[in-house]
Amino acid sequence: MLRPASTRWFEVLCPRRESVRTVTELARTGAVEIEIRDQVCGDSLLEHLSEGLQTYDALKVRYERYWERARLRRKLLVESPDVVLERALARIGAWRREADPLIDILQSCEEELTRLKWLAQVIGKIIDSPLDFGAVARSGPVLGTFCAVLPRDARPQLPDWVIPRPIPWGDEDCAMILGPRDRLDAVKRLVQAVKGRVIERPPWLKGDARDSLARIGARRAFLSTRVVYLKAELDTLFDEFDLGETLGEVAGLAWFAAHVGCLERAGEHLVWVTGWTDDLGGERLRAALDAARTRALLRLTKPPPGKRPPQILDNPPWMRPFELFARSLGVPGSDEADPTPVLILVVPLLFGYMFGDVGQGAVLVGVGLWLQRRWPEARLMVLGGASAIVFGILFGSLFGREDIIPALWMHPLHDPLTLLGVPLLFAVALLSLGHLLSGLSALWRGELRHWLMQDLGFLVLYLGLIATVLRPGLGWIALLGLAWYLIGAFLVHRALLGGLAAIGHLLESGVQILVNTLSFARVGAFALAHSALSVAVVTMADSVPLWAGILIMILGNVLIILLEGLVVSIQTTRLVLFEFFNRFLQGTGRVFRPLPVPPPIVREAVQGAT
């Protein structure tokens, strides 16, 4: 588990006319990244269909709104792409000839519904005003009116020969504009130029404001009913032309063109599908090809010379949420240790120490259990909350109160020096572990001798300095480490300049690791801050009547969980990434990027698949 696994190189030989289907089935496993072995021999399988696919894309932009109302029955692709695309475009064209008139009427109804909605809002604003809407409705033939809804910061220069009447209108400006009917078109263009909306009164709208609202309501009800019937007619046409199956097939071609495009030619009638897979035994790939009844041959083999395999983290499912930390720096290379197995202990310990409280930890556990089905990373919250419960028992804290359960270890505010000192000892152990993990990486790189002669001496020097602080009589350990490092550096470099460079590196690394160690004092500081904030909430709750105290305890604990939970999470992440990881992890691995899953299909029996 400590060493990342390398993906395996796979090769699939299949008939050219089945290549799209074969790649689709492989991609459906989520376990393949396509990489052509020899780009010179690449075969752009759908290049001759590019014009047809562009036509499909244009049609999809225009009609997708109506196609999405129905379910696309994406079948297995068993025919050649040429036949599929030609049939799809012909069938879409036939559908369009009958659907376009209905769509035009539908869009007209929807646009009128929108205009009437705006007009009803305008009339509703002036229904109780002194403005005589009946007189407005009877204006003409010389005068005309319309309403303009303008963005708040818009200031169009209206001509002097129009009369605007402001209307109250939320976050925008609205005005009814009166002017010569034959010159109002120019004013409407001014309004639209500043991204305003023009609301016109339809000719059939008569009467006063209340009568007009009734007429608008009746018209909107009629249009809404008509829209429903028009959509039903379009759905019927969709089924009559069997567009569900047709669009499903061509969607698979569009997916292939967008995400694959080119494969390696293996002859006149065959192609190679090659790349990387994280299915290290090939079981899922073989099962997918067999289920689709493809005439494809699969083999897992050594990668071609010069190909760099992507790395994957090989951890059991319950560990994978902790991969989030390592992935934030990339992916560990093949010669770098995966810190995930270590983090399953380190992260909860750091979080729980800074957030030690039984009640608040239980809340985090409950929220994490509720979220983890939709968000797997919520397991981090579950384990962090469980750790907070354990430290809450050690600190004797329950929802901030320290007078309910006894402290099995100490109350943080009663012994702050111990609270600050323990994280420093933890830091020494953690940073030493990081140094040992760098030695493991050196072993995998074949550089263990260099690490033993020089870097191990640096670790002995570091531990010797820490031991000297605790017990001055152990200073000889630090001297032993210093001599070890200097002698090893000389033997490694065999040159004065190299030795001087090693001394400079020693000074830089020594200062850095001491600063990294002191950074862990913030763990104790945040534990103190959490305890102090809890005491402040309890003190306020105890100084007021019971009902107010209960309210303060509830709101105070909610505030602590939200605020301290966020701060402690940030600090835990910072210590892991910048204090622990910089000892051994650079994230030099290549990320495995599997093909995106193609559109889903409805599997049907394939009769006579060729």
Automatic annotation (TrEMBL):
<feature type="transmembrane region" description="Helical">
    <location>
        <begin position="456"/>
        <end position="477"/>
    </location>
</feature>
<dbReference type="GO" id="GO:0033179">
    <property type="term" value="C:proton-transporting V-type ATPase, V0 domain"/>
</dbReference>
<feature type="transmembrane region" description="Helical">
    <location>
        <begin position="483"/>
        <end position="507"/>
    </location>
</feature>
<keyword id="KW-0472">Membrane</keyword>
<keyword id="KW-0812">Transmembrane</keyword>
<feature type="transmembrane region" description="Helical">
    <location>
        <begin position="546"/>
        <end position="568"/>
    </location>
</feature>
<feature type="transmembrane region" description="Helical">
    <location>
        <begin position="519"/>
        <end position="540"/>
    </location>
</feature>
<dbReference type="InterPro" id="IPR002490">
    <property type="entry name" value="V-ATPase_116kDa_su"/>
</dbReference>
<dbReference type="GO" id="GO:0051117">
    <property type="term" value="F:ATPase binding"/>
</dbReference>
<dbReference type="GO" id="GO:0046961">
    <property type="term" value="F:proton-transporting ATPase activity, rotational mechanism"/>
</dbReference>
<comment type="similarity">
    <text>Belongs to the V-ATPase 116 kDa subunit family.</text>
</comment>
<dbReference type="GO" id="GO:0016471">
    <property type="term" value="C:vacuolar proton-transporting V-type ATPase complex"/>
</dbReference>
<feature type="transmembrane region" description="Helical">
    <location>
        <begin position="342"/>
        <end position="371"/>
    </location>
</feature>
<keyword id="KW-1133">Transmembrane helix</keyword>
<feature type="transmembrane region" description="Helical">
    <location>
        <begin position="420"/>
        <end position="444"/>
    </location>
</feature>
<keyword id="KW-0406">Ion transport</keyword>
<keyword id="KW-0813">Transport</keyword>
<dbReference type="GO" id="GO:0007035">
    <property type="term" value="P:vacuolar acidification"/>
</dbReference>
<protein>
    <submittedName>
        <fullName>V/A-type H+-transporting ATPase subunit I</fullName>
    </submittedName>
</protein>
<feature type="transmembrane region" description="Helical">
    <location>
        <begin position="380"/>
        <end position="400"/>
    </location>
</feature>
